[in-house]
Amino acid sequence: MENVFSDQQTLHPTIYDSPEKVEPTTKSASYTRPQSHLPVYTNLASNKLTIAGGVAIFHVASARVVLCWHGRDKYWFLPKGRRDAGEESGAGAEREGFEEVGAIGQSGYRNRLLPIPMRHMQPQAHRPTRAAVNPFVTEPIWTQLVPLDASSQYLLFWYIAETLPPDVEAQMNLQSANGQDDQGQAAYQYPPKFPLDLTLCQRLSLEPNGYEPVRHKNTGVDAEEAMYQSFLLPVDEAMQKLRGHLQEDVIRGGWEAICLRKTMER
What we know:
The chain has 266 residues and is an alpha+beta fold.
């Protein structure tokens, strides 16, 4: 497939300044970015809070993003789900991105969080390391608080990720083959992090022309996920299918930040 990650991509120079109107990623109608809600006070016991992660998984070279289709309820969505006990939220989002898009007969995409430029409120480390001074971060691009019921809360972090390059896919396949359980099922393997010294252009050079990200069969883990199908769709098409939902802005903001990172690294 042709590499469409070109210099002609429209950039938004002030991502997350929350303007009322911004220039669209493509030549479409003017776009209104969602606004953050006012801060709230709340106290939640451990048995009243579910922490989850969602992810927009981009194949950067072809300007596509993974989108899920619910076969029974007929709607589109980005992969998301609860993190496991003791699991970091970002790692949980990566895992859900792999498992939730993997219905029976369909497939999931291995992915890793992609460091991007964004405005955030997290401090640098007291003793800065190479990671601390890096201008690109893997913080959540959006956070949602959603009631589960009258007394329980769902806390959802949205992340930006990329499909894995061929060499990392091969490494992960080998690890999975060596990590099967007694039933012959491969345990989930967490991918290596995006290297701090790797630019986006260098990352793209790791893929041969026409490379198609690997689809792994039967990665869903329950009956609900068996109803999902996953598709790598052009960014613009995916945003159109999520029109009016916060997930549209997860994709839009993520793609704008990816394009901005490429510009910053020139």
